């Protein structure tokens, strides 16, 4: 008899199923991506999505306090005794009219979802609480990940908190200092590879296979289950209504994949009536998805993705010795491992893809800092992308839009300081040099009033 939850290959010609007791990160039969799937008939899911609000009243229960496990019925793959939580998902959905004005959206329509408020300062904690719970369930003792920074910080924190060893692989010189400082401080074995994120991603898969380590990248289907809850919290923040648009930065494409799955399941379960559209935003220096979807016309095609287009594209990157570059180091990725699941999400959510320049990202980031709670560069790609989509008329001025701000502003202080100090953009706010003299200081201060 099939368990309540199981793993299933996304390749329609394979479709192999495996129980959740196996730590897998690709299909052992055809090497495609795996999904966590559920036998919904065997799960008692609340009748209305607003029923989840009842758990706020019992938040002394650690699982009800968690912004991930509060929705546990929708990611029901392990028993409560294995569930790890360090208080993730206490995030805010902020209506922000000042930023809305900048992107030409009507007051009351733009919402910013601050995932930087998680314990390790990024959205990754949503995924790690789920993946580490699965790691505990299968008895893992050692783990690993490749990272542009935030995954390594989150892995290091969760590994330490549940007593699992971890090794994190990062590209040398490719990681923001806030993130590197976390990995070291939380006690991860940190290995800097002379290469970029894509090199680290390739190496970590082989290391995990060879040494039997538990892999924590978003190839891990259980990690993506945790990331679905970002969408549940946005719906919750809107009084249990669905927005018209979700806007998210695209790197390794785990978030966009998880969001598409979340909405598909909610619709299937009758918990929502409408699926929002999704916009995935790359940086122009790392725009594989944009190029493949908008120029090469790659699509989900009912699961029959044209592999040749992808193979040719990657062969060309290799031939050109291409390595991605953007100030948004979190999304500096040219071979996104969740590409196919992301194509599925685009199909489910009638999605669009755009790329924005570093200059656009930096201005948007400064604006979110000036009028909101701030974020790291990759997160600001959402607002920069929205500006494009409004100018094109793809997004309407009175549609309800939720932008996922994936990481905390202190993750990458160098980028922020340089933007202001070197007057790189229209919102630069450089420090003013003053002599150590009261009259001169008073003169400077009054000039500002
Ligand atoms: N925003 C931030 C702040 C990130 O750290 C990442 C990914 C993304 C967006 C992209 O999300 O991969 O789901 O498309 N960071 C990974 C890491 C790759 O290693 O920390 P995605």
Describe this structure as you would to a colleague.
- A hairpin with a 7-residue loop joins strand 1 (5-9) and strand 2 (17-19).
- With 449 residues, the protein is of the alpha/beta class.
- The protein has helices at 62-65, 97-102, 124-137, 150-162, 177-185, 197-211, 221-227, 229-237, 254-268, 288-295, 307-319, 339-348, 358-371, 377-392, 413-421, 438-447, and strands at residues 5-9, 17-19, 34-38, 92-95, 110-114, 142-147, 165-171, 189-193, 214-215, 245-249, 277-283, 352-356, 401-405.
- Strands 4-5-13-10-11-12 form a 6-stranded mixed sheet, sandwiched between helices.
- The protein is 38% helix and 14% strand.
- It binds ligand F0G.
- Residues 122, 147-151, 218, 249-255, 330-331, 376, 378-379, 406-407 line the site of ligand F0G.
- Ligand F0G is lined by residues 122, 147-151, 218, 249-255, 330-331, 376, 378-379, 406-407.
What about the largest sheet?
Answer: 6 strands, mixed
What's the total helix number?
16
For the residues shown, what is the average pLDDT? Answer: 97
Percent of residues in helical segments? 25-40%
What is the beta-strand fraction? 5-15%
* Element-level helix/strand string: EEEHEHEHEHEHEHEHHEHEHHHEHHEHH
Low-confidence stretches: none
Shape: globular
Terminal Cα span = 73 Å
Fold topology:
Elements (H helix, E strand, L loop, with lengths): L4 E5 L7 E3 L14 E5 L23 H4 L26 E4 L1 H6 L7 E5 L9 H14 L4 E6 L2 H13 L2 E7 L5 H9 L3 E5 L3 H15 L2 E2 L5 H7 L1 H9 L7 E5 L4 H15 L8 E7 L4 H8 L11 H13 L19 H10 L3 E5 L1 H14 L5 H16 L8 E5 L7 H9 L16 H10 L2
Parallel strand pairs: 5-13, 6-7, 6-9, 7-8, 10-11, 10-13, 11-12
Antiparallel strand pairs: 1-2, 1-3, 4-5
Helix pairs in contact: 3-4, 3-7, 4-5, 7-9, 9-12, 13-14
Bound molecules: ligand F0G.
């Amino acid at each position: 008899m099939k368990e309540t939850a199981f793993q299933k290959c996304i390749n329609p010609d394979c479709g192999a199923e495996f129980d959740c007791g196996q730590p897998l990160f690709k299909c052992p039969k055809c090497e495609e991506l795996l999904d966590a799937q559920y036998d919904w008939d065997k799960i008692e899911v609340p009748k209305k999505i607003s029923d989840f609000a009842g758990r706020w009243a019992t938040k002394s229960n650690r699982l009800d306090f968690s912004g991930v496990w509060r929705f546990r019925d929708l990611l029901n793959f392990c028993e409560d005794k294995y569930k790890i939580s360090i208080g993730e998902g206490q995030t805010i959905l902020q209506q922000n009219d000042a930023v809305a004005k900048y992107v030409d959206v009507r007051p009351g329509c733009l919402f910013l979802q601050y995932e930087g408020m998680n314990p390790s300062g990024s959205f990754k904690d949503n995924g790690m609480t789920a993946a580490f719970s699965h790691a505990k369930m299968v008895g893992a003792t050692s783990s690993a990940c490749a990272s542009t920074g935030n995954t390594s910080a989150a892995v290091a924190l969760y590994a330490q908190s549940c007593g699992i060893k971890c090794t994190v692989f990062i590209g040398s010189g490719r990681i923001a200092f806030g993130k590197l400082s976390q990995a070291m401080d939380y006690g991860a074995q940190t290995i800097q590879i002379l290469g970029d994120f894509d090199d680290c991603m390739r190496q970590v898969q082989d290391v995990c296979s060879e040494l039997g380590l538990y892999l924590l990248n978003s190839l891990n289907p259980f990690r993506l289950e945790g990331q679905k809850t970002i969408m549940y919290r946005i719906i919750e923040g809107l009084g249990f209504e669905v927005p018209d648009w979700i806007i998210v930065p695209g790197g390794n494409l785990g978030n966009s994949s998880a969001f598409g799955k979340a909405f598909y399941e909610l619709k299937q379960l009758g918990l929502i009536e409408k699926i929002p559209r999704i916009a995935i935003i790359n940086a122009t220096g790392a725009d594989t998805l944009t190029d493949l979807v908008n120029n090469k016309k790659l699509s989900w095609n009912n699961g029959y993705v044209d592999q040749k287009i992808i193979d040719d594209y990657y062969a060309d990157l290799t031939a050109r010795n291409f390595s991605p570059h953007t100030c948004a180091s979190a999304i500096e990725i040219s071979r996104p491992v969740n590409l196919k699941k992301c194509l599925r999400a685009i199909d489910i959510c009638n999605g669009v893809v755009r790329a924005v320049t570093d200059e656009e990202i930096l201005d948007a980031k400064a604006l979110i800092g000036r009028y909101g709670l701030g974020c790291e560069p990759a997160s600001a790609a959402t607002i920069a992308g929205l500006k494009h989509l409004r100018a094109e008329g793809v997004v309407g001025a009175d549609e309800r839009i939720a932008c996922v701000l994936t990481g905390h502003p202190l993750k990458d202080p160098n980028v922020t300081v340089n933007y202001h100090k070197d007057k790189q953009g229209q919102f630069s706010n450089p420090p003013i040099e003053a002599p150590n003299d009261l009259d001169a200081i008073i003169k400077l201060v009054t000039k500002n009033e």
